[in-house]
Every structure is written in structure tokens, then in C-alpha cells.
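Late entry, evening session. Most of the bench is empty. Finally got around to the prediction I had been postponing all week. Sequence below, unchanged from the version circulated by S.P.
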Amino acid sequence: MPQHKPSAEDLVGIEHCKLGFFQELRQKLEELQIANMDSEQNRLEIAAILDGITDIMMVLSDELCIISVNHVFREVIGIEHPEGRYCYEIFRDEDTPCPECPAHRAFVTDSVCRETAIFRIRDRNLQFEMVASPIIDPSKDERRILIFKRDVTMEKEYQAKFYQAEKMATVGMLAAGVAHEVNNPLASISGFAEGIQRRISRMDIQPSPDLEDINDYVDTILKECFRCRDIVRTLLTFSRPVFSGFSPVCLNAVAMDTLKLLNSHLKEKGLNIVMETHLAPSLPHISGDEPQLKQVLLNLLINAIDAVDQAGRGGGTISILTYPTEDEGVGLEVVDTGCGIPKENLDKLFEPFFTTKAVGKGIGIGLSTCYGIVKEHQGEIQVFSEPKKGSRFIVKLPSNLDNHGD
């Protein structure tokens, strides 16, 4: 057959179709560019929102494997590429999920779960409030959990200081009232006792056993009056609610004053506890706030008494030691034969509101207060303990003064 040559109309039609195709293609490209710009804008907005979040954020798989994190995670934890690692491996250095893990509970219950926990990060204990929320995506079968961890360490520390200050202010008001109500009758009792002594000395009475008994009774009354007066004064120094300034302090005197207050506490609880003191005879004075240092020792001793009581062995021993340190400072130790502290709790002891005591027995600010006071004195506090073998708390404080004899 003879080959048909395209006519001019055919050529125009073909070119017209090409032109329409290219116009449609250009329109599609423009639409894709606009959509890509919108998508990039949305991505930048989402990235800006995520960068503005100051909490640690993680997305976890159902096996608690890290899928993605935000920049705060890398800054706080110090790990640049955590993806693919398990969260309990990073935060607890464990091979199994944490018992309090809210992510695990969120997977099981398919609901938002909250928890507060302490983690050791870069040689420091930090307290976090955690929120775990399931990520629901109908288009995917894979389950994921979004975790937020907010650092509340400083907030808890200030909250503990507030509670301690409020408690001491209340004790201060009560102590001032007690001092006023007790000192007046004490003054009368001691005054009359001294009057009896003077009258007996002026009376021409032959020595006799009855006279000796009367003199002993009067001496005992005066001694007990003076002891009560000292206890009231000591109570007032404990209850001072504000910082009183640093001055020369002898830890031996701090120990003896604190023991005076604890004697009644031991009698009230009926515990068979032996209190031993090993105080260095020539102890350097330190520069410190005496009421605050008494709070430290009082908290340590009360915890030791509770530990011995909890051990339930019918009694125990608590030892108080003071000694000069090699760097011309002073050491103070409280050693007990109580129930001891589990290894996993040792790093948490000085954190605000951490307590192993039963509800109503304490809110966990005693040891955190001790830690804060010792740090304010530029000292350090350590603890060594084993379950069922007792505990040993060591406080070391710098002298910052010329040495004085005890």
C-alpha cells in the first residue's frame, strides 16, 4: 500500500496535543511545588514546636526501644544517637523494664499513665515527672508510645525547703510559748529551793540523816530545774526558723545538746537503745550555723532510731563520733545497728520527698534538708549501709577557723 503522508491538519493536531500535555504537566509541577512548600512550612512549624518543648521527649516501640528523641534528650542525657537502644538500658543501666515504667503500663492499659521517678544522670540524681501516651495511627499496626520527662529536681528541692522552713517556724512559735510557760514556774521552784538551802544553812540544826536527805532533795530539785532550763534553751536554738549567720561552733556541744532532746524521745518510745558517744577531746571549732547543724544531727539520729526500731531485734546501738580530719576540718559520724538500706536506695536518700517509711511516718525531707545544710557549710555527707547490717552516715565540714580547744 502506498504510505499516507500526514496532512497539515494532522501535524497541527499532534502539536496541539503535545502543547496541552506540556501545559498540564507544568500545571501539575506548579501544584506539586506549592504542596511541597506547604509541607516544608508545616514541617518547620512542627520542628519549631518540638524545639520549643523543654521536656525530654521520646517515641518508643512496644518493646520500649527508642525510635526517635528531641534535642533536649541529647542535651540532658548526652547521647547523640540513642535510636535503637532500650530506654531502661539508658536510664537505669538494666536489662529489663523498670517496675514503675509508665510506658509499659500505657501499652497494657492503652491509656495515658503518669509516674515520678529518680534517675542518675551524669553523676547526679535527677527527679522526673513522666507522662506516657499511646500514639494511635489506624493506618499502621505498629504500636508506639510518646514519653515526656520533665525535670522537677529544683522544684522538689525548693518545695522541701519551704516545708522545712514552715515546720521550723511552727516549732519556733510553739517553743517560744513553751519557754515562757515553763520558765516562770521553773524560776519559782528554783528560787524557793535556793531559799530553803539558805535557811537551812542559817539554822542551828545538828547534822542528822534527815537533814542530809533534805539537802539531797533540794540539790536534786535545783539540778532538775537547771536541766529543764537548758532543755528549753536548746529547743529554742533548734526552732530558730531563719538563717542566724555563721559563728564558731563546736560539734561536741552540738552532739551533747542534741542528745538531751533525744533522751525523752527514747523514753517515750520505750526502746532499748544504747547511745554511745566518742567525742574527740580537742576538736577544732568550725564556722557554721549552730541551729542548722543541730537539725542535721537530730535528723540523722532520729533516722538511726527508726532503723534500729524497724530491725526489731529488741534493741541496738547508736554511736556518735567526732574527730579532726586530715585537712584541718571536723568529722561527725552516726553509726547504727539498724535494718540498713538497700543498695538501690542509697543514691536516692538525699533527694527531696524520697522516703521508705510508711505513710504518716515522714514525707522524706529530713535527709534532703541535711544534704542542703551540709552543702551550705561547704561540707560533704556520705552514707555506707547494707541491709540487716546497719548504716554509717559521715559528715565532713571544713574548719575555716583557727583551732580552739574543746
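Two things to note before I forget:
The chain has a mean pLDDT of 78.
The radius of gyration is 36 Å.
Will write this up properly tomorrow.
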